[in-house]
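General statements about sequence and structure are easier to judge against a single worked case. When preparing material for the folding task, we compiled for one chain both its residues and its backbone structure tokens. The amino acid sequence and the backbone structure tokens for this protein are reproduced below:
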Amino acid sequence: MIRHVVLFRRKTDVEKDPAREGALAERMAALGAQIPAIRHWRVAANELVRPISWDYVLESEVESAAALDEYRFHPLHQALVADLKPYFDWAAVDYTV
């Protein structure tokens, strides 16, 4: 099993837009049920404001590296990534569990 963890934060040069951000977060949360390769999916918003904090975390699990690629290159994921890129920076970690 591969755990895929992604942290998101609004880009420093992008003005905060709660409606846009909320819509993106909802789309992130819904994606887990739309791609068959995903075994576990959770999106959560940060609750404590600290200088090192990111705005959102995505925690997911897939069966294998091949399944991770199936998710990463799925058209629904690619469409979401295109919409996330202008608003968020992100960092990812993938590891075996």
